[in-house]
């Protein structure tokens, strides 16, 4: 669905714009003339907040992949329909429950800071990865599997040589969705004290400083668009 | 009567159809035959103005079709396509009733008409009336498609590869059923096909098109035995005569018993197709066969009979 | 006619469980019930109630009396045992476990508060949460075990009865909710208003746009690309980005300011939410309209339907089920975005989440987060039901 003809350009343009905006002084120079307030000098420079943000998202994605893929493989083995249904139901529930509610519910368990945010990112990030991986593995044509069995492949060989390669595009699309949405979720995480690019937005809102809000929002948007475009490169072109 | 006068269709610089002059006789089935891309479907779709001609005109019963609103024109012409195009959200009866509905006909009369049509196309109304298109086989769906096209009793029927998507068995059955229907209703039918057998089997006349032009128009015999060009001969193929034989029972070719000469020793049933009779002649190394009906000799057939072009048309 | 119907590949359903109920459930169903037993077993041992002198102060953890620990341990294992030997009856212990967990939460919080000061709060601790989770999964698993269909919903009247009789009245979240009272109802109404308005606007803009774009290859690509980019942008960032132009507008035109347009509040929230909901509405609209079988549209044209007859009689009915699933996605998404919109003063259930986060009051967080989650689930279920109904009426799988 996403990407398209402009995909390759987007993978150049968004990261370039992001890097440009991260050069100290560039973003304030762009925003201050709008007369909405002063970006000023936050306690932590914007590039540091961006790195924190990116770090949270990447760490969450790694954990999500490490948990989600084996889970999806486990529940799609034959004779485990009930487990697959359970995981699909839970994933569907995860898709439905608001992100912010998931994050907020982690606070009572883990306190404030980056920990509840990371937990929220992992829980929420698991949703597209597991659901896509299940769909992808389920979608492998029975003909291909039958042929593989006919050639004498063991169950493990079928998984590694047939099922995973065939399901790869769908799985990658899930990882991409998961990562991009998590950039957004991590923004909200600033409300739990996780740092990141949500911090200037929330501070700006409470201080009535639209310039500060704008600096965080622009960077968060650029980060999401950059990651989306970069990860689109790994998907096969239609 | 449908007449095409200097009909043409241009797409950009190229002609899909060029200077086409053709008269489709009333009450006959004309097969528009040709290789893909020859313009036959474009021609068909220009008749009910699904495609607007770039030049020339189409006359329906002497009237230029451009004088009519396209929707009104189409409601008076039955239309059957290869993809069938049944509306999946309506049941069979509702599908068949579409055009009468559009024309604002009386509901009760239409309901009776639907049953009559389902009967005509060989589907039991009680079984099929309330089925959804998704529950039908390909052959059943196309039967409903034919019933739907006939619903408003249009004098003209346009068919675009109507049996093209069916498996050979279903296609054979539906072709037979349609030939019977046509024999009773005598509609003016224009049927696009790329299947030579279908054209020879169903067509009263065949219009063979090539590269947007009419190559030859005539009876199947004309095309087989009196081709006007190398293209016609090549397109029909060396075995065109054989193909035609395959579609006819041997009884059409047999000579009556004269009572004097002895009956040939090898006999075949009169329902056997003429092509198989020819094969029997070859296999047995004989000149003539006895044709029997229910064990009774009713005639004989030989090489010369099968070679003559003249089995009478149905 | 002989058409081998090769449909329903890959959509295999579970085989119908045996009606006799004497035989055991399948192995994978037993695995689900084993997964359900684990958190219940752990939950019985862990503390159930956190008692604090007031809503913010640290408190002490209370465990269940041994009788109830033993009962819970038995009830945790019973569904698993039932599934093995009398699978049609699995729903009985599973439903009992769920109702008992809720009842215990109510009675234990009530017991903890006896003799405490007015501001003391008793909230659920890890044991209660884990037990509830496990019991929920057990109920889910029991539905795969056979037995009467309605048995899968047997917990619902029981739970309703427990709630209506005030069993949970001493649970801290409900105490918090009572003290908020009418204000909470207002915030819930505001939440629904925000979602409803944004969804309505998105439909008003998105539906005609989808119809217009679906017939035009390049327009469709461009419109979907733009909507995709909008959805990629984090919702909080989108709210932030909209504040600047709207406050600039309000500054430039005082009339607009009087009409309620300003940098914070409902206007930017609604704008962002509408933009957000536009993508699912548009995308599914375009996809749905394009996947209407070409043969049906061609046949409709050939039969003499006008363009508007084709749209209303053929294209729209065939596109509706898929389109509606886009509307459902949009609605669910909006319930979540509306929670974040509280940050810019738009109100809604998010107000409680932010208040709770600012004052580190867990109960306030739950008062916002739990209803928001339930609301999303309810909206999803309601629209899903409508989809199935439509798909059945329109004779096509959604």
CATH topology of the largest domain in chain C: MetI-like fold
Instruction: Estimate the mean pLDDT confidence of chain B.
Output: 88
Number of structural domains of chain B? 2
Write down the secondary-structure element order of chain B: EEEHEEHEHHHHHEHEHEEHHHEEHEEH
Domain ABC transporter (chain B): 2-236
Family (chain B): Belongs to the ABC transporter superfamily.
InterPro entries (chain B): AAA+_ATPase (IPR003593), ABC_transporter-like_ATP-bd (IPR003439), ABC_transporter-like_CS (IPR017871), P-loop_NTPase (IPR027417)
Keywords (chain B): ATP-binding, Nucleotide-binding, Transport
Structure notes:
- The complex is a heterotrimer of chains A (238), B (314) and C (398).
- In chain A, α3 crosses α6 (114-138), α4 (81-96) packs across α6 (114-138) and α7 packs across α8 (155-189).
- Chain A is 76% helix and 0% strand.
- Chain A has 238 residues and is an all-alpha fold.
- With 314 residues, chain B is of the alpha/beta class.
- Chain B has 2 domains: 2-245, Rossmann fold, CATH 3.40.50; 248-307, CBS domain Like (Alpha-Beta Complex), CATH 3.90.1280.
- A 6-stranded mixed beta sheet of chain B has the order 6-7-8-3-9-10, with helices on both faces. In chain B, strands 2-1-4-5 form a 4-stranded antiparallel beta sheet, with helices on one face. In chain B, strands 11-14-13-12 form a 4-stranded mixed beta sheet.
- In chain B, β7 (156-160), α8 (168-185) and β8 (188-193) form a beta-alpha-beta unit.
- Chain C has 398 residues and is mainly α.
- Chain C is built from 15 helices and 3 strands.
- Chain C has helices at 27-45, 66-85, 91-113, 126-143, 155-164, 172-180, 182-214, 217-232, 235-252, 254-258, 266-290, 294-302, 307-341, 350-358, 362-393, and strands at residues 49-52, 60-62, 121-124.
- In chain C, strands 2-1-3 form a 3-stranded antiparallel beta sheet.
- Chain B binds chain C through residues 48, 50, 70-76, 79, 81-91, 98-99, 102, 132-134, 137-140, 145, 148, 158, 166-167, 169-170, 173-174, and chain C through 1-3, 5, 293-306, 309, 313-314, 317-318, 394-396.
